[in-house]
């Protein structure tokens, strides 16, 4: 590596998870409502004090988050957005990591009343990709320039840990070593027992992602009608078990629309604190799905607690302040304009050119999980990022492959070292994308952005990165710090 750092060497094989009682619901509904009730109509000064603390990148307590959530003064909200932008710039710079979801199987034994894959949706054609179909999907994503996949599976005996591991191995092997291969596979699948999580870890996954959907137990039990997912506590402790199994990179989320958004945000941050307390590491990422219309689901057509765009922006901004070092993920579910705004407020990863059907990258969508808000191609998303958000689309997978995961990754972030790795790697992988996949228009716009970014660097750092860009131009691939 061009930058040597003692923290870069591999990460712990095991994570010390404290004794915990998986029969206890650590989400205390009354405590959350008290926080909200006790902080109604906060005055401007109280809100500004919270913003001042957040500016110092120290994160926020639940009480401070409640103050921000209860603020009704629009002028102070503008200050909130400005602080979120400042934190995003200080920690993440202007890079945006891109990924694509790959739906491997829509077989599902659960009946989640918001999801098109529900076992009660008898109209849905069911499919698990065969090995050949999986390879074809990965090749299509590789041809688009993707380097990161989020593999998605319904909860079904067919999609057991062994089958998931086999599919991940297949995906990693497509064009392996030939340049252009997928370099990181994150997984979104049902929670498992610790032993199965150990098996999952052997597939060299990136992040294990699983959303609680709703942290409000009564709501949770009302919308999950069938199958193992009905068990609220089994899902609530999924990340504890994943950590016990040595998976130190986990992603959590709420499906907004099921219950009160203020409650859900405070409860999700309670989950973050519980993981930090019991496992010593918080989540690597937080995702922000909102319910989208799904075939066969009347609930998804009329979600009980609609979160409008303005509220959604506030939720993302407040989360950026509360957990400044946690990556925030926006899916393709949001339309292009809103995504643009959310990027500036702190989102650090987005999906691009996505399909939500098994086999969807090689056929028309007829069995999608839900409909998408953004239909643009990868090249259009990249061009939009460059032109309108002045962001560097990043295809970097360096941290995970250098062992900068879990507590190491967060430790690095806390010391603001991300700029040392992420920014250079973003430029190098973006250059690779421009050379190999971009349209002429995107390539020109991208080259101009890279030149402008290089101008901002110190001479030594610039020399290092330019050397990597020259190697990339000469045909070398997969260079990263
Ligand atoms: N079956 C696994 C599970 O439920 O955790 C993983 C796959 S599931 C398709 C992934 C996520 O999709 C769920 O956690 C849920 O938040 C999201 N989802 C389901 N229905 C949705 C809808 N109508 N709109 C937006 N997101 C939805
Ligand atoms: Fe199945 Fe997951 Fe959809 Fe629920 S959200 S029906 S578990 S795929």
From TrEMBL:
<dbReference type="InterPro" id="IPR024007">
    <property type="entry name" value="FeFe-hyd_mat_HydG"/>
</dbReference>
<keyword id="KW-0411">Iron-sulfur</keyword>
<keyword id="KW-0479">Metal-binding</keyword>
<protein>
    <submittedName>
        <fullName>[FeFe] hydrogenase H-cluster radical SAM maturase HydG</fullName>
    </submittedName>
</protein>
<keyword id="KW-0408">Iron</keyword>
<keyword id="KW-0949">S-adenosyl-L-methionine</keyword>
<dbReference type="InterPro" id="IPR034428">
    <property type="entry name" value="ThiH/NoCL/HydG-like"/>
</dbReference>
<dbReference type="InterPro" id="IPR007197">
    <property type="entry name" value="rSAM"/>
</dbReference>
<dbReference type="InterPro" id="IPR058240">
    <property type="entry name" value="rSAM_sf"/>
</dbReference>
<keyword id="KW-0004">4Fe-4S</keyword>
<dbReference type="Pfam" id="PF06968">
    <property type="entry name" value="BATS"/>
</dbReference>
<dbReference type="InterPro" id="IPR013785">
    <property type="entry name" value="Aldolase_TIM"/>
</dbReference>
<feature type="domain" description="Radical SAM core">
    <location>
        <begin position="92"/>
        <end position="328"/>
    </location>
</feature>
<dbReference type="Pfam" id="PF04055">
    <property type="entry name" value="Radical_SAM"/>
</dbReference>
<dbReference type="InterPro" id="IPR010722">
    <property type="entry name" value="BATS_dom"/>
</dbReference>
